[in-house]
Amino acid sequence: MNRKQLILSTVLAAALVAAAGIAKAADDVRLRLNWMYYGSHAGFALGKDKGYYKDAGINLDIRSGNGSGSAHRLVANGDSTFSYGSCASMLNLAAQGAPLISVGVIDAMGTEAVIVRPDAGVKSLADLKGKTILTTANAGVNTFFPLVLQAAGLKDGDVTITNVPDGALVSSYLQGAGGAVGILGGLDDKPAEIKANGGAEPVTFPYSDFGVNQVGYCIVANADTVKNNPDLVKRFVAATMKAYKETEANPDAAIASMADIVGGSMAEEQGKAQARAVLDVTLGVLYSKANKDKHLGVNVAADWDDMLALMKKYNDLKTDKPASAFYSNDFVP
Fold first, then answer.
1. Which residues contact 302 (CB under 8 A, 6 or more apart)?
2. Pairwise CA distance, residues 202 & 273, whole Å
3. How far apart are CA 286 and CA 83, in angstroms?
4. Tens digit of pLDDT for each residue in 104-133?
5. At what angle do helices 87-95 and 68-76 cross, to 10 degrees?
6. Are 200 and 118 contained in the same domain?
7. Model's pTM, two decimal places?
8. 5 lies in a domain?
9. Quick one: 135 and 236 in the same domain?
10. What is the DSSP string of 117-133?
11. How far apart are CA 46 and CA 52, in angstroms?
12. What distance in Å separates the CA atoms of residue 270 and residue 137, rounded to the nearest whole number?
């Protein structure tokens, strides 16, 4: 082998080693959803199905959750790399010392509401006095319910709150379990689920009608991940925003991707229609009014300031930190 051939061979060997290193560089990432798959999650499914995460060097494992609080706790304790769930729930946990930070926003405005059976005779929230409402223990929708009651002239004890398992929330609502007249849930998924299961169009009382202006749902990371592996966070957030941009442009493709991944009833026409109805609500709240430039994923300072002020005033949240301590836009493309 002459010198030229030796150099060429050495360069080729180095290239092969580098290529092997790149192949091994894919990071295993677990994303914990706030709930079982529903339409709002379609962007994540599209990103996985179309290879956006793979292209970013990520082997993505998407897992269902049991409420936003539970999902965020699994990130705090290292079970999951990222979570998707209520920003208010994350803020509440982080203020208590959980190592959590929002690295991007999907639902920029809250869709939380009191959802009531139309046969319950509830025409205003004041009519809930003495009645029972169902929820799940870890749901982010619980965070601001006391404020909604206060705005309606009610006290915490005026309404009985009963926790049920997450998978039984809508069925318990339809059955009027325990004499319950309604549930706490998101307008993005629960009305569609109720109607898909044979229920009538519910009466809804959005939290936003009662002075609750909040950031909706965040992508949350452990503070240690942000500190020690910022490149991973940047790649994950970039792939996610690419996926949700594509979902904006082609929502049916996102629903098809989710149907392929989940299968079962989600792949049936009724399941797809329900998921699309849910996704349409999410696509309608991607940008808050304060996000003038419609920059997808950005944590808007004014929105976070408002939410923190509400939680400190009405939810007894204790923190001396500014709202900016609980989010970062460093990873939003």
1. 290
2. 18
3. 17
4. 999 999 899 999 999 999 999 999 999 999
5. 50
6. yes
7. 0.81
8. no
9. no
10. -GGG---SGGGGTT-EE
11. 8
12. 29
pLDDT interval class at 143 (50, 70, 90)? confident
CA distance 300 to 45: 25
Tokens of 275: 């998921």
| Inter-residue contact 258 to 57 (CB < 8 Å) | no
In a domain, 20, yes or no: no
CA angle (218, 108, 182) in 5-degree steps: 85
> Looking at the structure, do residues 201 and 247 belong to the same domain, yes or no?
no
Helix (H, G, I), strand (E, B) or coil at 182: strand
Task: Confirm if 68 and 110 have CB atoms less than 8 A apart.
Answer: no
Residues 92 and 124 in one domain: no
Pairwise CA distance, residues 196 & 191, whole Å: 9
> In the chain, how many domains are there?
2
Three-class secondary structure of residue 11 per DSSP: helix
pLDDT at 18 > cutoff 60 = no
Among positive and negative, which fits the CA dihedral 218, 224, 226, 231?
negative
**Which contacts of 20-26 are long-range, i.e. CB under 8 A and separated by 24 or more positions?**
25/57, 26/54, 26/57, 26/58, 26/59
The whole-angstrom separation of Cα 179 and Cα 198 is 19
Amino acid at 61: D
CB 102 within 8 A of CB 90: yes
Looking up tokens 């325990």, which residue turns up?
178
d(CA 303, CA 292): 12
Residue 243 corresponds to which amino acid? A
- Clarify whether residues 196 and 238 are in a common domain: no
- The structure tokens listed for 306 are 């408002």
On whether residue 332 sits in a domain, the answer given is no
Query: Residue 94, SS3?
Result: helix
**What is the pLDDT, as a whole number, of residue 3?**
56
The residue type of 33 is L
Reading the block at residue 115, the tokens are: 């959802």
Single-letter amino acid code for the residue at 281? V
